[in-house]
Amino acid sequence: xxxxxxxxxxxxxxxxxxxxxxxxxxxxxxxxxxxxxxxxxxxxxxxxxxxxxxxxxxxxxxxxxxxxxxxxxxxxxxxxxxxxxxxxxxxxxxxxxxxxxxxxxxxxxxxxxxxxxxxxxxxxxxxxxxxxxxxxxxxxxxxxxxxxxxxxxxxxxxxxxxxxxxxxxxxxxxxxxxxxxxxx
Amino acid sequence: xxxxxxxxxxxxxxxxxxxxxxxxxxxxxxxxxxxxxxxxxxxxxxxxxxxxxxxxxxxxxxxxxxxxxxxxxxxxxxxxxxxxxxxxxxxxxxxxxxxxxxxxxxxxxxxxxxxxxxxxxxxxxxxxxxxxxxxxxxxxxxxxxxxxxxxxxxxxxxxxxxxxxxxxxxxxxxxxxxxxxxxxxxxxxxxxxxxxxxxxxxxxxxxxxxxxxxxxxxxxxxxxxxxxxxxxxxxxxxxxxxxxxxxxxxxxxxxxxxxxxxxxxxxxxxxxxxxxxxxxxxxxxxxxxxxxxxxxxxxxxxxxxxxxxxxxxxxxxxxxxxxxxxxxxxxxxxxxxxxxxxxxxxxxxxxxxxxxxxxxxxxxxxxxxxxxxxxxxxxxxxxxxxxxxxxxxxxxxxxxxxxxxxxxxxxxxxxxxxxxxxxxxxxxxxxxxxxxxxxxxxxxxxxxxxxxxxxxxxxxxxxxxxxxxxxxxxxxxx
Lengths: 184, 478
What we know:
By secondary structure, chain A is an alpha+beta fold. Chain A contains 3 helices and 11 strands, in the order αββββββαββββαβ. Chain A has helices at about 1-30, 90-105, 165-175, and strands at about 35, 40-45, 50, 60, 70-75, 80-85, 110-115, 125-130, 140-145, 150-155, 175-180. By secondary structure, chain B is an all-alpha fold. Chain B has 2 domains: about 10-245, no CATH class; about 305-415, no CATH class. A two-stranded antiparallel sheet of chain B has the order 1-2.
């Protein structure tokens, strides 16, 4: 009786585990990044209405680009660009302050902040990311934008500061556009 | 056939479930703490709201939806904790499914349909695994297809509590610092649109399919496999529909109509899709209630006659009888009638659940002290009703009703293998000398919904969706 029960338990555990282990294994075997064609815009999430046009040769990380939380992760010339978009932002200053606060929670200070504007006229700010001493944060560059009740946070890592961001990566950031949001 | 005492700790499944719940429950609490720590006010609000919703769910489930069988609290807790820990862990591992969709089809396709595929597949598998473990760990408590549905719903409840908390905490931290309003809006939307009709319903359907496949050994392998596939398929499809762009299209289609918000289309689609599943569960419930109410008589115990089953199994009949008694004999008789109803339900519950590993009733002469106590309560409640009916002259119809409650006789000494050295029934037990109303087991007739009832149900569902849709659009507007 006990052996039968044990075998059944094992079958349940193996069956349940297989449902996540099999896709994870197959996923790991397929290359994670896809090279993007020149000028092809990428939607940041679904229905948020935020897009950016990455430079030619950028690699889009398919595993780390999560539609459920409207995040896109691109790699270009060694820099990693992570763009996250949210809707319902009616107090831009509070949103940007909260974005910086969340970065500090992740172990990074934002310093040398200055205003910035995209080619489409979306206003925002940018600053260097400095790791909190003893924390897990990394150096890099931060940018935050708010337009039409949409908030966008850009985090560029694998660079020492904003001035070290490859120009084409910054061109991608400046290509961010905000279109009308889909209600449903 | 030899009846052996069941022992939870004697089964590997029991220990596996315990281990998963202790480790997984701890991990789940840690995850919730990490999510809730930066948003303390929203966390307090979300925990309070979800506790209220969970309590209401459990009360409605235990008191009205599942009134006959008594579910042990440790098993209910195990189901809810597993749903909020083990099943959540499996669900969290669904990311590679969406990544695979992006790699093999396109990022746009994964964006649109990713959550409609990855969440149902992984989450339903995780939750169904929990129901299977519960069946293996506590088999005597999951003896009917309806039990599979009930424990499935409980696993789904645990899952939805942790998931809703996670979404609320994330919403509170997404745009502004500790945004209680965003968390409250999200919770309101999730509770109104899918709390009971979401994960609890999906897992109830899958659990019923699993229980049918495991318990209905008298049926062919084909029909059992079909029931399992149907249960899991219904759960996955309903979940997928809820997460798919189809609900968005329904909302967009309905939105331009005058006096109707997009929410109406969204809700109507979800509710109408859930309706067939709810009807199947309702039929299973009815079958289980009738079976449970007839069980004491089937086992040769007094206390509940066929007439009582008719009254006890329907709320409307119960209310009608109660009102008739109130009119003819006053409040005291109604109270006594309610007590008798409760005592009879308790008797059915005690008969259905094992007593210290043994079946509660081994034979009409051998049953657990809990059954004896319940029989005694029935006898006392019946005497109280008789007394309440005596001082006044009853109308003929009500007198008949009252007297029909008084026909069964009391039961004497409880005897159970644990307390008694009497021969085991397998080796020859004796029937009870005072048993007065033995019934043969009968197939429980289950009322099928008629076409007019279905039309009314669909109309009511659309009407409810319209009302709730209006409420949600008002909330959004404010």
